[in-house]
Amino acid sequence: RRYLTREIDPVPLPRDMAVDVELGCADARFLFDLAPQFPDRFHIGLEIREPLVDFVNEQAIALQLSNLVAVFAHINLDLDELFADATLSRVYINFPDPWFKTRHHKRRLVTDELVEILHRKLRPDGELLFQSDIFELALDAMTTFEIAPYFDNVDGPWSFRRANPYP
Known about the structure:
Layout (H helix, E strand, L loop, with lengths): L1 H4 L12 E6 L5 H9 L3 E7 L2 H13 L5 E5 L2 H8 L5 E7 L17 H10 E10 L3 H13 L20
Parallel strand pairs: 1-2, 1-4, 2-3, 4-5
């Protein structure tokens, strides 16, 4: 109920930097690795657990990473309102919860609705990286992305990337 009754404000974005977003950043280790290597990009982690958001923001300040911020958000409910259309350069989905039981598949992050929203939020030259260590989940996500008319798989249709392009 708390997520359904709160006001959602758009995330303020810098005008002079590319904006990268990780959906479900947890403690943002991925972003903490990227931010110093790509200081010309603004890195945003979306996370549903407020204590982790606070932790990430405190760590970013302590490490003087002004290009990294975490935002408290419920991705399935808030993503469309957090960012204007065509403003994101990259979106990362790293190892989302697999929700193994069939009756829980409806809770999986990658849905037709998410794919459509990501298409609108990404710039025309934007990139999306999905990675999972669960083959069934990776295949399920690939299917959702492949059947949507919005994205081109850089490795060819129905292909997995052989190596991670990011550290």
